[in-house]
Structure to design on (619 residues):
C-alpha cells in the first residue's frame, strides 16, 4: 500500500467508525427527547427510568461520535490539503457552518442535559434534549451539504485553477442532497428503532424485572423502525433519479460501489419486511417470547446497511474527490510521507478501534444490567448505593 | 470582512485556551489530587462546552481561511499528537467510572492532558519555525499555566475561592502571541468575500444562542453540589 491508499483507508475507517455512532445518535435523540417529554408531563417513575436508561445508552454512544468526529474534521487539513487548496472557498463553508451553528450548540446543550438533572427547571431541561436533537439534525444537514458538493460541485465556478463560490443556494438545493439527507435521517431512525427493540427483546426474553418498561420500549422501537425502514427505502429509491442525473455512471464499472448498493438494498428490504411483520403484531410482540431472540439477532443489520450505503456513495465517486473536477490522487497533501501517514494511521485507526470496542462492551453492559443501575440523572441528594452506571 | 472573521478565529482560540485550559490543568493535576472524584466532578459539566471551542476554531479555519490549512499538514506530528491525546483524555473521562480500574483512566486523563499541552507547544512553535526543543519548552509553559488555572478553578468551584478570570487570561497568552504574530498572514489568506458574506449572514442569527448556551452552562454549574457523572 502506498501513501495514497493508506490515507484513503484511514479516512474510510475513521469515517465508518464515526457513522456507526452518528447513525444511532440521530435515531435515539428524538426518541429520548420524546421519553423525557413524557416523563416531564407524567412525573411517573416508569417514565423516569425509561428516559434515564435510554439516555444513558444515547450518551455513551455519543462519546465515541464526538472523538471520531474530531479526527475526521482535522484529517481534511492533515491528509487532504489538495482539496482545500482547490475547493476550500466553497467546501469549507458548510463545514464551518456545521461546527459553528450546529455542533457547537449540540455539544453545549448536551452538557446541559447530562449534568442538568435535579438542577435545571423541569421544562428547560426537557428543552435541552430537544435542542440537542435539532442541532444533531442540523449537523447532519451541513455535513450532507458538504458531501453532496463532492458528488456534484453545484454552486461553484472555476477561477483559474481553483473553485469559487458562485451560488450558495445551489449548494443547498444540490440534487445529490435533496433525497440523500432524508435517506440518512431515516437510516438513523431505523437504527434507533432496531436498537431499542433489540435491547428490549433481550430483557423481555430474560424475564428481567422491568417487563412493563421494556414492553413499552419495544412497541416504540417497532413503530420507529417501521417508519424508519419505510422512509429509508422510499428515499433510497427516490435518490436514483437526482443522483444519476448528475452522476450517470456512479454504479457502472465501480464494483465496490455496486456491491455496497446491492447489499444495502437487500438488507433494507429485509429490515423493512421484519419491521412490517412486527408492526402488524406490535400489540403482542412483547409477550411472544419466540420472537425475541430473532429481534436481538437482526439488531446489527441496520448498522451494516448504513456502512454499505456510504461505501456505495463514496466508492461511486472514485476516482474523483470532486466529481469530474479533482481526482482523489490530486487532493492528497503534497509531500505527505509514508512515515507521517503510518504514524497517524496507527494513532487514529489503532486508538479509535480500541475505543470503539471498549465503548460497545460498555453499551452492551449497560443494556444487560438494565434500568436499575443508571448513573445518568441519579439524585446526588438521595442516599444511594455506589452506582456503576 | 476578513478582519471580522479573523476576530472570530482569535476569539475562539483564546476562548479555547482560557476555558479548556482549566479542564486540562485539572487533568494534569490528577496524579497529585487527593479527591479526584470531586476534581473531575467540578470540571465535568464544562468539558463538552469548552472543548467544542477548538472544533469551532478548526471550522472557521476551513471556512474562512482555507489557505491557512496547510499549517496543519506542515506540523503533522504535533497535530496527530494533539488529536490522539485529546481523544484519550475524553475517553478517560467517559470510561473512568465504568470500565476497568479508575486509576488507569485517571492516568490516561493526566497523560492525555499533558499530550495536548505539549502538542500545542510543538504546533505553535512549529508555525513560527522554532526548533523541536523550543516547542517542548513552550508546551511545558502552556502546561504550567493550565495547572495554575486548573488549581484556581478548583479553588473557586469547590472551596469558594476567588474567580479564575485572571488565570484564564494568563492561560490564553500562549495563544495570543502567535495570533498577534500571524495576524497579517492569516488575514491575507482569507476566503473571497462571497464566501465570507454568506457565512456571516448564516452565523450572525445564532451568535446570541451560542453565547446564551455558554453562559447558561456557567450559571447552572458554577455552584451547588458537584455532579458525579464523569
Amino acid at each position: 500500500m502506498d501513501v495514497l491508499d493508506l490515507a484513503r483507508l484511514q479516512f474510510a475507517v475513521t469515517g465508518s467508525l464515526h457513522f456507526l455512532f452518528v447513525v444511532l445518535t440521530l435515531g435515539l435523540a428524538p426518541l429520548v427527547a420524546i421519553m423525557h417529554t413524557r416523563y416531564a408531563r407524567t412525573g411517573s417513575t416508569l417514565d423516569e427510568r425509561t428516559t434515564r436508561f435510554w439516555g444513558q445508552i444515547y450518551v455513551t454512544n455519543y462519546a465515541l461520535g464526538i472523538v471520531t468526529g474530531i479526527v475526521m474534521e482535522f484529517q481534511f487539513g492533515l491528509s487532504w490539503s489538495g482539496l482545500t487548496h482547490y475547493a476550500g472557498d466553497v467546501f469549507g463553508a458548510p463545514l464551518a457552518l456545521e461546527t459553528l451553528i450546529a455542533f457547537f450548540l449540540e455539544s453545549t446543550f448536551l452538557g446541559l442535559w447530562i449534568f442538568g438533572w435535579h438542577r435545571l427547571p423541569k421544562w428547560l431541561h426537557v428543552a435541552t434534549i430537544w435542542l440537542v436533537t435539532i442541532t444533531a439534525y442540523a449537523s447532519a444537514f451541513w455535513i450532507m451539504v458538504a458531501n453532496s458538493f463532492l458528488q456534484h460541485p453545484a454552486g461553484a465556478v472555476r477561477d483559474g485553477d481553483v473553485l469559487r463560490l458562485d451560488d450558495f443556494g445551489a449548494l443547498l438545493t444540490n440534487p445529490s442532497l435533496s433525497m440523500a439527507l432524508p435517506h440518512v435521517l431515516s437510516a438513523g431512525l431505523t437504527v434507533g428503532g432496531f436498537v431499542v427493540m433489540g435491547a428490549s427483546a433481550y430483557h423481555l426474553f430474560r424475564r428481567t424485572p422491568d417487563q412493563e418498561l421494556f414492553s413499552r420500549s419495544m412497541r416504540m422501537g417497532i413503530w420507529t423502525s417501521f417508519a424508519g425502514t419505510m422512509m429509508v427505502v422510499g428515499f433510497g429509491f427516490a435518490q436514483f433519479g437526482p443522483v444519476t442525473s448528475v452522476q450517470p455512471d456512479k454504479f457502472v464499472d465501480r464494483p465496490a460501489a455496486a456491491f455496497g448498493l446491492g447489499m444495502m438494498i437487500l438488507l433494507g428490504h429485509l429490515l423493512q419486511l421484519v419491521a412490517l411483520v412486527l408492526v402488524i403484531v406490535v400489540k403482542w410482540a412483547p409477550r411472544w417470547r419466540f420472537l425475541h431472540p430473532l429481534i436481538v439477532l437482526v439488531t446489527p443489520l441496520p448498522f451494516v446497511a448504513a456502512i454499505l450505503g456510504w461505501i456505495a456513495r463514496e466508492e461511486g465517486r472514485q476516482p474523483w474527490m470532486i466529481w469530474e473536477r479533482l481526482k482523489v490522487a490530486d487532493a492528497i497533501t503534497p509531500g505527505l510521507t509514508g512515515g507521517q501517514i503510518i504514524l497517524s494511521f496507527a494513532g487514529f485507526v489503532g486508538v479509535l478501534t480500541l475505543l470503539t470496542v471498549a465503548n460497545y462492551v460498555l453499551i452492551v453492559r449497560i443494556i444487560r444490567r438494565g434500568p436499575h443501575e443508571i448513573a445518568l440523572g441519579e439524585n446526588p441528594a438521595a442516599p444511594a448505593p455506589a452506582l456503576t452506571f | 470582512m476578513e478582519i471580522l472573521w479573523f476576530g472570530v478565529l482569535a476569539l475562539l482560540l483564546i476562548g479555547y485556551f482560557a476555558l479548556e485550559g482549566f479542564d486540562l490543568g485539572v487533568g494534569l493535576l490528577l496524579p497529585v489530587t487527593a479527591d479526584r472524584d470531586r476534581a473531575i466532578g467540578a470540571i465535568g459539566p464544562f468539558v463538552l462546552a469548552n472543548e467544542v471551542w477548538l472544533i469551532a476554531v478548526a471550522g472557521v479555519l476551513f471556512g474562512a481561511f482555507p489557505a491557512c490549512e496547510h499549517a496543519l499538514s506542515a506540523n503533522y506530528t504535533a497535530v496527530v499528537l494533539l488529536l490522539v491525546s485529546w481523544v484519550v483524555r475524553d475517553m478517560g473521562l467517559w470510561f473512568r467510572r465504568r470500565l476497568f480500574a479508575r486509576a488507569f483512566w485517571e492516568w490516561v486523563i493526566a497523560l492525555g492532558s499533558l499530550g495536548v499541552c505539549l502538542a500545542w507547544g510543538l504546533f505553535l512553535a512549529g508555525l513560527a519555525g522554532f526548533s523541536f526543543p523550543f516547542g517542548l519548552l513552550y508546551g511545558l509553559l502552556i502546561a504550567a499555566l493550565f495547572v495554575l488555572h486548573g488549581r484556581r478553578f478548583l479553588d473557586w468551584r469547590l472551596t469558594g475561592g476567588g474567580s479564575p478570570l485572571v488565570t484564564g487570561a494568563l492561560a490564553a497568552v500562549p495563544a495570543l502571541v502567535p495570533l498577534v504574530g500571524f495576524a497579517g498572514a492569516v488575514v491575507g489568506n482569507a476566503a473571497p468575500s462571497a464566501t465570507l458574506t454568506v457565512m456571516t449572514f448564516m452565523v450572525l442569527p445564532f451568535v446570541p444562542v451560542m453565547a446564551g448556551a455558554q453562559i447558561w452552562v456557567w450559571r447552572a454549574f458554577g455552584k451547588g453540589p458537584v455532579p458525579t457523572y464523569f
